[in-house]
């Protein structure tokens, strides 16, 4: 497998997304979306990229806003329902002339991918979707990850998110960081930052409007959802009956 080739594309709101390509001039391409506080360089992303590349696919792994080691320009970050950014990436890929496009997503990226596939009519060149460890019910999954047994994981996410907010506040002073240090769980972080920065009333409104569970029945392309029964982050509502 070769080295990633970085491309930066602009968003309609004068921000940017950083895309990492592995190309070998194939007709098939997969777009891979990472999880919460991940990026294109994570081991699970590179492993999936290699699997597709070795099977004659071109590969695009992309970084959400603020996830490519450079802070994005606007007040908004990324979130589980930001399908406008995924749509921009998909449209960009399709404009390159690929005949067959596949979508893969992990965790938050899985929710994003399923929501994208379910909320819009997809280009006929999008042939299939595969997702892994998807918190399709965002509210109950947030409760699940905040349980004492998952403390070490949730605190790692919280520390990373807090650091990112503080970094952005240095660039955009109007971002209020009062009370940030007192936040110790994801629901409170989403209530104070994710929801208001992205147009939601509060964390619960964000979870209810963006959870992929609402969109799955509308998906028209072949779709695989792989959720392990013993996944410590997933609530029972994340498993289809």
Describe, in plain words, how this protein is organized in 3D.
The protein is α/β, with parallel strands linked by helices and 241 residues long. It is 35% helix and 18% strand. It contains seven helices and seven strands; from the N terminus they run E-E-E-H-E-H-E-H-E-H-H-H-H-E. It has helices at 43-53, 83-94, 108-119, 138-145, 151-171, 186-197, 203-210; strands at residues 5-10, 16-22, 28-33, 58-63, 100-106, 126-132, 223-226. A seven-stranded mixed sheet has the order 1-2-4-3-5-6-7, sandwiched between helices. Strand 1 (5-10) and strand 2 (16-22) form a beta hairpin. The radius of gyration is 17 Å and the shape is globular.
List keywords for this structure.
alpha/beta; 7-stranded mixed β-sheet; 7 helices; 7 strands; 18% strand; globular
- What best-fitting shape do the alpha-carbon axes yield? globular
The gyration radius over C-alpha positions equals 17 Å
The largest β sheet comes out as:
7 strands, mixed
**Percentage of residues in strands:** 15-25%
What is the oligomeric state here? Answer: single chain
Average per-residue pLDDT, rounded, comes to: 95
Note the gap between the termini: 39 Å
Give the total of beta strands: 7
Strand order of the largest sheet: 1-2-4-3-5-6-7
Helix content range of the residues, please? Answer: 25-40%
The run of helices and strands is: EEEHEHEHEHHHHE
Number of helices: 7
- The secondary structure category is alpha/beta
Low-confidence stretches: none
């Amino acid at each position: 497998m070769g080295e990633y080739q970085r491309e930066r594309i602009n968003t309609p709101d004068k921000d940017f997304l950083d895309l990492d390509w592995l190309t070998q001039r194939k007709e098939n391409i997969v777009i891979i979306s990472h999880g919460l506080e991940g990026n294109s360089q994570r081991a699970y992303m590179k492993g999936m990229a290699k699997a597709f590349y070795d099977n004659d696919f071109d590969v695009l792994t992309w970084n959400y806003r603020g996830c490519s080691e450079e802070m994005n320009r606007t007040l908004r970050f990324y979130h589980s329902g930001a399908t406008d950014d995924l749509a921009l990436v998909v449209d960009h890929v399709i404009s390159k002339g690929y005949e067959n496009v596949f979508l893969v997503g992990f965790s938050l990226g899985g929710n994003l991918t399923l929501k994208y596939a379910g909320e819009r009519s997809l280009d006929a060149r999008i042939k299939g979707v595969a997702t892994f460890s998807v918190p399709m019910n965002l509210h109950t999954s947030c409760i699940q990850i905040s349980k004492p047994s998952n403390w070490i994981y949730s605190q790692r996410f919280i520390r990373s998110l807090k650091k990112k907010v503080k970094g952005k506040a240095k660039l955009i002073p109007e971002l209020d960081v009062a009370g940030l240090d007192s936040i110790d769980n994801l629901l409170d972080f989403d209530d104070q930052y994710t929801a208001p920065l992205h147009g939601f009333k509060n964390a619960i409104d964000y979870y209810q409007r963006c959870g992929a569970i609402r969109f799955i029945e509308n998906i028209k392309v072949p779709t695989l959802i792989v959720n392990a029964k013993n996944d410590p982050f997933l609530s029972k509502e994340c498993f289809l009956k």
